[in-house]
Amino acid sequence: MTATVRPTKVRRTPTGAGAVRAVQVAERASEFGWQSDPDWLRAARRRAAEWVEANGFPSTKHEDWRYTKIDAALALPLSAPYEGAVEDRSASISSSDLPAPYLGGLRVVVVNGRTVSELSAIGTPVLGGIRVESMAGAPQGLDGLLKQSWTRRVGGYSHALRALNDAAALDAVVIDVPAGTVVEDPIEVVFVSMPADAVRWWHPRLIVMAGAGARATLVETYLSVPGAPTVTNAVTQVDVGAGAEIAHYVLQGERTDSFHFSSLESRLANSSRMSSRLLATGGRIGRHEVDIVLAGEGSQVDLDGLFLTGSGQHHDNPILVDHAAVGCRSRQLYKGVVSGDGHGVFNGHLVVRPGADGTDAAQVNKNLLLSERAEVDTRPRLEINTDDVACIHGAAVGQLDPEALFYLRSRGVSEREARAILVSGFAREILDRFAPGPVRQRAEQLAVAAGVAIFYEHRQGPGTDRTVTVEAADVLSGDPLT
Amino acid sequence: MLRIDGLHVSIGDSEILHGISLEVPDGEIHAVMGPNGSGKSTLAHVLAGGEPYQVAAGSVLFDDLDLLSMTPEERAAAGVFLGFQHPVEIPGVPTMYFLRTALNAQRRARGEQEVGPVEFLALVEDKRRLVEMERALLDRPVNDGFSGGERKRHEILQMLILEPRLAVLDETDSGLDIDALRVVAAGVSTMRGPDRSALLITHHQRLLDHLVPDRVHVLAGGRIIRSGGPDLAVELEAHGYATLDGTIVEALPVPAGTVR
User: Fold this and answer.
1) C-alpha distances out from residue B5 to A411, B20, B199, B248, Å
2) For residue A157, is it within any domain?
3) A465 vs B contacts (CB less than 8 Å)
4) Region B198-225: what's the mean pLDDT?
5) Rounded CA separation A232/A117 (Å)
6) Do A410 and B77 touch (CB under 8 A)?
7) Which of A6, A75, A189, A417 is the most buried (most CB within 10 A)?
8) Would you kindly state where each structural domain of chain B is located, as residue ranges?
9) Which residues pair with A124 in a beta bridge?
10) What Cα–Cα distance (Å) separates residue A268 from each residue in A246, A256, A275, A330?
């Protein structure tokens, strides 16, 4: 159940110089998105574009957007894409530009919303019958699935950005993990956004189907490259079949002058499990929507997030967990570290439907403010429509513990390093939930790049004790920790 | 080693220490005893550089260093160690990492070579056995889920690793069972040497059964009202603070099972 938008003020399109209408963008996308769209897709794009034009872009007057003003993103023109804006840019990316470390499994690279086949494991059948396909490659037998993806919002969209993705996506990466298949190595999708003359908005899309009893790890990494600012407007859909287990990660490391809007839409069938973990360091605005429907009895979801918000940055985390079936369990733990004049938002909404007995849900948000000007808005919300539930929720906003700071300093640690250590300790709780190995390593590197000291633990060898070294002991980007 | 002269300390508007003078020569262990609220913990924290305290008057010399003008980390590197009465938890920061960071920060400040991971592991293992602390605790975040006794052992472990010249132990003995008390006493004894000193701040006399001090000072109402040899502790235990100052009536609690 997604909240319906009641527009109070309609802004037809982004207003930047040379902006075109969403309908024109959709038409252009139709022409070279899927080597000429089938009729149903052309119609779906058209409907979505018309929805955008009829309803306009969200403003802070919309309840779900009250803390996030997207005018700066809308000032970048919405332009019709052209072939070179995608192809030429893709050619400039090589495997050495991709984020390290390599995660060890299948990899797909998407530049400006379209899969780069030279860098991607697409099209070829792989072990266990997994299919990784790109819609732009016109693969056989995926019509039904794609059609389902594009028609899920027939009743309307929660906001224009999701509709715009339907209208303007140039491609979709489809990952199909058949029933009973277990994939050990992470499957990763790297999304890169680059400016191409006037075209700044990109609409990547990822569709994941996990069959009954399937098990897989999925990692999305978002990057933007040097140049003019871009807008990444991504949609990811994950369908988790009965008894399936999906571990999903989002690493959002876009440039701090770019814009990132992403939506995760997930539906969980009976006895399935999903975890989705976010590390957000990038974006002038980073908005990471999560929509989970616990549709099947006994399904479980774990949502964890860490946002490291520096000066000039704004991170918004709207989460909707819909307990629609009996005996489901959900956990949310989001932590924010906000410095300089950064602004963090946690907007968690937990709904327990009538009859969803035996619901077990927890929703927690904790924030650390590192400067006087840093700001956090936190709104954990419960909406419970049945009696047989166990729900807890809570939020905390605080500063570095002065007693812990003194304790460290009294042991000889400088004030600067002591602060960095405490910030890391705060972040650690979330990073420890990332799968040990290359996934956690990449997350830690991203956190270090954002200025958070991380303790890497190294085993000296079998049977010996663990020792710990610090890799970087600096501060969050933007502002000294004063 | 330590020379405190006419020290007046306040928090906010209220003065807690009204002119303390105290000298701890090299190699000596001194005890500061006194009832609750006498200013003992304030004295300990002021020596380490605790934030909320304002020094209105007086001086503290550590060798020839003006301790009060130094930051807490500078004092630590110079060789001052405070054993906390209530050691804080630091979630997410592994204890081993904390210990090595502290040691190396001090060594760096003194221009000494840092200790590598392997060497450090051996060092910690050695000291850990001495304080009979479970190895598994070192993998946990600092003091996270440690019992009261485990926290105090951890304080002593830190002292043994950092090897301060002056250890100020603030009520390290409070709330400890007899085994832990023995460990604390053994830890301080291990450190004893001609160029190391200790200031034991305590409410009870029972630590002093295990660790005989060179001098005992009685702190009451923010003043040192009496100083003497080890016998003073015994006298206090027998008669309470009342014999020393008519205004103070609290007797020393006698631990259960004490035979006199």
Assistant:
1) 25, 6, 16, 24
2) no
3) 96, 121, 125, 135, 138
4) 89
5) 20
6) no
7) A189
8) 2-243
9) none
10) 10, 34, 11, 11
